[in-house]
Specification:
Number of strands: 13
Number of domains: 4
Number of helices: 26
Strand content: 5-15%
Shape: globular
Largest sheet: 7 strands, mixed
Structural class: alpha+beta
Strand order of the largest sheet: 3-4-5-2-1-6-7
Distance between the termini: 94 Å
Helix content: 40-55%
C-alpha cells in the first residue's frame, strides 16, 4: 500500500478528526495533485457534505489555528495554521458542489485538479477518485480542461492554466488551448484582485519571461496590461538590438539569471561567461540580498515578484517619450519619470498594495541613475548618498535591475571589460549600503532644525530642510564631523546667501 498522507501530519490528524465524527469529506484538487507528483503542499482542500463553514470553525479550534470565512454563500471557510516545516498551512473546507463528489469534480477547472480521495480511505492511493483521467494527464504532462465550459464558467482559469502548466513543467492540451483562446476577452470581467493574484504567482515562478511570452501569444497579456502592446516594434538606438517589448521580456529573463547567480547556483545560463562575475564580485552580499528579495511587501507577495513586474514595465513610457535629434539619433528623455506614473497606474488598477506601488514607482523613476553614475570617472560619496536618499531600500532593487537591464541592452555585443566595471560598480554601491551605511548612507545627525532656529533665528520652513541636507552631504564627504563644524558650514551658507541677495 502506497502512503498518500504522511503519518503524524496535520492533514492526517484532521482526517482522523473527520472520521471520528463520520463526516463525509474528500481531499480534492491541488493538494492531491501535488502529492501524486511527490511534492509537498501548503494549500489543502476538503470538499464536505454539509456545513463546511461550521466544520472549519471546529477544526480551527481543535488545531489551534485561525478561522477565516471565505464565502458564506458558497459555504467556504479556511483554517490557517503552521505545517510541520513551520510554513503557513491553508486548509479550506467547501460544501460539495452538487449531490456527490463526482458532480463536484465535474465543475472543477482541469483534470489534474479533478481528483479526490475520500477521507475514509485517505491512507493510501488505492482509492483515488479520478473520473476525468487526471492521473493519466499528470503522467503525460498535460493541462486539460474538465469541460468545454470551464473557461466560460470562470475566465480566470485562462491565467490559471498557464500558471499550472508552468508549475507542473507541463503543456496545455491543444483542445484546451483553443477553448482558452476563445475565452480570453472574458477575463476583463474578472475582479482585479483575482487577476493580480494569478499574475503574481506566474511572475514568482522560475521562467517568468517565457510564461509572460506565452500569455502574450495567447492574447491574455494585452487584455491585462494593454500598455505593453505599444512597446512592440518600437526600435531603440545603439547599443540596443531589440525593440522595447522584446527588451523588456529579456530584462525579466536576465533578472532571474542574476538572482540565480547571486545564490551561487550553476546552471546552463549561469555557468561561466558574463554571469560568473556576479557571484565572484557580489558574493559578500548574497545573504543580505536573498533576505531583501524574499521580504513580503504586501500580503504574501515577495519583493522579487514586484521587481520582476518592474523589469517588465520599466520602459513602458518609451513610446510616449521617443524623440529624434538633428542627426537622427533616438532618445527617450524622461521615460523613467513618466514611466513611474504609468507603472503606478497599472499596479493600482490591478489592486496591488500601496507599498508595492510606491516601490515600483521608485525603481522605475530612478532606473537610469545607476547607468549614468557608473559612467563617471570618479564616483563621490555625495553622489552615492543622493541615490540612496532618493530611493531608500529600493536602491538595492534598482541596482539589480540595472545589471539585468545592461545585459539585453548590449546582447551579443556585450563587452566583458565594461560589464565587469558595471558589476564592480554595483558591488561598491552595495558595500556602501550594507557595510558603510553610517558613513555614506545614514550619517548620525549632528544638528537639527531647532538648533538652526535657535542659532540663526530662522523660521520653520523648507529652508531648514535644505540646510540640514547640505550638512548631511558635507558629512558623507568628510567635510564636517562635529556639531560646531556643521553650524559653521550653515553660517557660511547663510552668509553667502545674504551676499547674493545684496548683489541682486
Amino acid at each position: 500500500m502506497i502512503e498518500l498522507i504522511p503519518k503524524g501530519s496535520i492533514v492526517e490528524q484532521i482526517c482522523a478528526f473527520l472520521r471520528e465524527r463520520s463526516v463525509e469529506a474528500y481531499l480534492v484538487g491541488g493538494c492531491v495533485r501535488d502529492w501524486l507528483l511527490g511534492r509537498s503542499s501548503h494549500d489543502i482542500d476538503f470538499a464536505v457534505a454539509g456545513d463546511a463553514v461550521g466544520l472549519a470553525r471546529r477544526v480551527a479550534d481543535r488545531m489551534g489555528g485561525a478561522f477565516v470565512l471565505l464565502d458564506q454563500q458558497r459555504c467556504t471557510g479556511r483554517v490557517v495554521t503552521r505545517g510541520e516545516d513551520g510554513q503557513r498551512l491553508f486548509i479550506d473546507f467547501a460544501r460539495l458542489q452538487g449531490d456527490d463528489i463526482i458532480t463536484d469534480l465535474s465543475k472543477r477547472d482541469f483534470t489534474v485538479n479533478a481528483i479526490a480521495v475520500a477521507v475514509a480511505d485517505a491512507e493510501s492511493l488505492s482509492h483515488v477518485i479520478d473520473p476525468y483521467g487526471g492521473r493519466r494527464d499528470l503522467q503525460l504532462g498535460l493541462v486539460r480542461a474538465v469541460s468545454e465550459t470551464a473557461f466560460r464558467d470562470d475566465p480566470l482559469r485562462t491565467l490559471r492554466a498557464v500558471r499550472l502548466a508552468a508549475e507542473m513543467e507541463a503543456s496545455i492540451d491543444q483542445g484546451t488551448e483553443e477553448l482558452l483562446c476563445g475565452a480570453v476577452r472574458l477575463i476583463a470581467n474578472v475582479s482585479a484582485e483575482r487577476i493580480r493574484d494569478e499574475l503574481a504567482k506566474i511572475l514568482a515562478l522560475p521562467g517568468a519571461a517565457q510564461n509572460l511570452r506565452y500569455l502574450d501569444e495567447l492574447g491574455l497579456l494585452v487584455v491585462i496590461i494593454p500598455e505593453l502592446e505599444t512597446l512592440k516594434g518600437v526600435e531603440q538606438s545603439e547599443p540596443h538590438c531589440l525593440d522595447v517589448f522584446e527588451h523588456s521580456l529579456e530584462t525579466v529573463r536576465r533578472l532571474e539569471h542574476v538572482v540565480v547567480a547571486l545564490k551561487g547556483y550553476e546552471g546552463e545560463e549561469t555557468a561561466g561567461g558574463e554571469l560568473s562575475l556576479v557571484p565572484l564580485l557580489l558574493s559578500p552580499f548574497s545573504r543580505q540580498l536573498s533576505v531583501h528579495l524574499s521580504q513580503p511587501i504586501s500580503g504574501d507577495r515577495p519583493r522579487l515578484t514586484v521587481l520582476k513586474f518592474v523589469a517588465l514595465l520599466h520602459d513602458v513610457a518609451k513610446p510616449a517619450t521617443k524623440s529624434f535629434d538633428d542627426e537622427g539619433g533616438v532618445h527617450f528623455y524622461g521615460h523613467g519619470e513618466e514611466g513611474a506614473e504609468v507603472v503606478g497606474a497599472i499596479l493600482r488598477r490591478l489592486r496591488f498594495g500601496g507599498s508595492e506601488v510606491a516601490l515600483a514607482k521608485t525603481i522605475v523613476a530612478n532606473h537610469m541613475r545607476p547607468c549614468l553614475l557608473a559612467r563617471e570617472e570618479v564616483i563621490t560619496r555625495r553622489a552615492v548618498y543622493r541615490v540612496f536618499r532618493d530611493t531608500g531600500d529600493a536602491g538595492v532593487d534598482t541596482l539589480l535591475l540595472y545589471l539585468a537591464d545592461h545585459l539585453p541592452t548590449w546582447g551579443p555585443n556585450l563587452r566583458m571589460v565594461r560589464w565587469r566595471r558595471r558589476v564592480e560598480f554595483v558591488a561598491s554601491m552595495l558595500a556602501d549600503y550594507y557595510e558603510r551605511r553610517q558613513k555614506v548612507i545614514s550619517p548620525p545627525k549632528l544638528i537639527n532644525g531647532y538648533d538652526l532656529m535657535e542659532e540663526f533665528g530662522l523660521e520653520e520652513g523648507p529652508r531648514i530642510g535644505e540646510l540640514l541636507e547640505a550638512v548631511r552631504e558635507a558629512q558623507v564627504e568628510g567635510e564636517v564631523q562635529m556639531k560646531d563644524e556643521a553650524l559653521t558650514l550653515v553660517k557660511g551658507l547663510l552668509t553667502q546667501e545674504s551676499g547674493s541677495k545684496l548683489l541682486t
